[in-house]
């Protein structure tokens, strides 16, 4: 490969970042300290407190989801959403092979097994057309249940994910879920602030999950939330995330083995202060994406990943896509950028290749494999644009 191609990529990134830069870091420029201090001064730091209620109300108002249940992190939110969706031990759950490992781990926590499907190249998310033909060829109805005809396991849920904040074809996937009566849980951990046809991601399916981990667009240190429009599901989610305690003035009665998954007030305080700045964060991220887009337009053989049609993406994490599809070519760029202080990362290793998931049922993953060789994530924190202003 020509050294000048690598050099031009480093240059394109640094014209936007104005020099060395990390991939993503949080920015605290609002009322974070005020709200967190208030928790400490009043003693309300743990799983009960006004900020926990407030973050749920604020997220409900912002996303349009009728009910929101705040949790300790996005992974626990996914876990409990799958439990409430009815996922049981020995079931299979359909998951994109191209995702962060937590999507599959949440399935494992239920005693179930991920069943990996491919993604489409444009959205980098689950491909509705391919999913439909896959289900048609793979499932058989046995006494009212859809079973994988090869493994014999019941297919209990479908978990699409909105990669790097770019919405996948969620309407198409929800339609397939309805057709088969299989619950859909949206992994919207990366897509707070992303909309498809004007509707917020995470609100299309029965349940959707957000994350407020330190590297996400809005952080609470650690935290997550489940979105749903169904009041019955919301009650069960709240109950299961708060140790399944039956309300009583003094007695400790728990009616099932629940989880201690409630978001602490301290984290909720941070989340509330961050959410107040979300519109500004999105504006900065979209500007950064535009500047990257211009910088890469001049270079043959690479392009910036854009939001899909009819979508408004939060551009949480920018990615470039190389025309070339050899891993060594990608690795040379990763080496050159990181050597010069510009932090870049490859996309996640496809989950089906990880040791604990290698024996799972997997369909053709051509697009996943190609994208893994083509994608490189580039610095995308909110601090970037200010740095060069
Ligand atoms: C971050 C993330 C999660 C998990 O969220 P945590 O809050 O880190 O537990 C799940 N799925 C995807 C796609 C993510 O990016």
TrEMBL record:
Which parts of the chain span the membrane according to its record?
none
Q: Which Gene Ontology terms describe the biological processes this protein takes part in? A: polysaccharide biosynthetic process
Give the GO molecular function terms: GDP-4-dehydro-6-deoxy-D-mannose-4-aminotransferase activity; pyridoxal phosphate binding
Q: What keyword terms does UniProt attach to this protein?
A: Aminotransferase, Pyridoxal phosphate, Transferase
Return the broad EC class. transferase
Listed EC numbers: 2.6.1.102
Tell me the route in metabolism or biology where this protein functions.
Bacterial outer membrane biogenesis; LPS O-antigen biosynthesis
Named cofactor requirement(s): pyridoxal 5'-phosphate
Catalytic residues of the enzyme:
216
- Which reaction is the catalytic activity of this chain? GDP-alpha-D-perosamine + 2-oxoglutarate = GDP-4-dehydro-alpha-D-rhamnose + L-glutamate
N6-(pyridoxal phosphate)lysine carried by residues: 216
Tell me the protein family, please.
Belongs to the DegT/DnrJ/EryC1 family.
Which NCBIfam families is this protein grouped with? NHT_00031 (TIGR04181)
Protein name per its UniProtKB record? GDP-perosamine synthase
Q: What is the lineage of its organism?
A: Bacteria, Pseudomonadati, Planctomycetota, Planctomycetia, Pirellulales
């Amino acid at each position: 490969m020509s050294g000048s191609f690598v050099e031009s990529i480093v240059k394109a990134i640094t014209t936007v970042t104005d020099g060395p830069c990390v991939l993503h870091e949080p920015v605290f420029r609002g009322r974070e300290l005020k709200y967190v201090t208030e928790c400490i001064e009043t003693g309300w730091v743990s799983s009960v407190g006004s900020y926990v209620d407030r973050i749920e109300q604020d997220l409900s108002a912002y996303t349009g989801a009728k009910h929101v249940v705040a949790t300790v992190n996005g992974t626990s939110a996914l876990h409990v959403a799958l439990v409430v969706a009815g996922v049981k031990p020995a079931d299979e759950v359909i998951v994109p092979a191209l995702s962060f490992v937590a999507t599959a781990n949440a399935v494992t926590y239920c005693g179930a097994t991920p069943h990996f499907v491919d993604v489409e190249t444009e959205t980098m998310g689950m491909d509705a057309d391919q999913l439909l033909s896959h289900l048609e060829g793979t499932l058989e109805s046995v006494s009212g249940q859809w079973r994988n005809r090869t493994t014999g396991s019941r297919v209990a849920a479908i978990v699409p994910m909105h990669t790097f904040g770019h919405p996948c074809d969620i309407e198409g996937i929800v339609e397939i879920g309805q057709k088969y009566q299989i619950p859909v849980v949206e992994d919207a951990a990366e897509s707070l602030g992303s909309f498809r046809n004007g509707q917020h991601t995470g609100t299309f399916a029965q349940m959707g999950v957000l994350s407020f981990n330190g590297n996400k667009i809005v952080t609470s240190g650690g935290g997550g939330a489940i979105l749903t429009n169904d009041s019955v599901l919301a009650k069960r989610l709240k109950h299961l995330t708060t140790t399944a305690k039956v309300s009583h003035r003094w007695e400790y009665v728990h009616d099932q083995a629940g989880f201690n998954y409630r978001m602490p007030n301290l984290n909720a305080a941070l989340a509330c202060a961050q959410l107040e700045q979300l519109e500004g964060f999105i504006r900065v991220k979209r500007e950064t994406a535009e500047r990257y887009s211009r910088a890469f337009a001049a270079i043959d053989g690479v392009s910036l990943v854009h939001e899909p049609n009819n979508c408004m993406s939060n551009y949480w994490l920018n990615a470039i896509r190389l025309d070339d599809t050899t891993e060594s070519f990608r690795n040379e760029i990763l080496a050159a950028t990181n050597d010069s202080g510009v932090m870049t990362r490859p996309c996640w290793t496809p989950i089906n290749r990880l040791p604990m998931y290698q024996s799972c049922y997997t369909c053709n993953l051509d697009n996943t494999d190609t994208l893994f060789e083509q994608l490189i994530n580039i610095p995308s924190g909110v601090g970037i644009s200010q740095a060069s202003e």
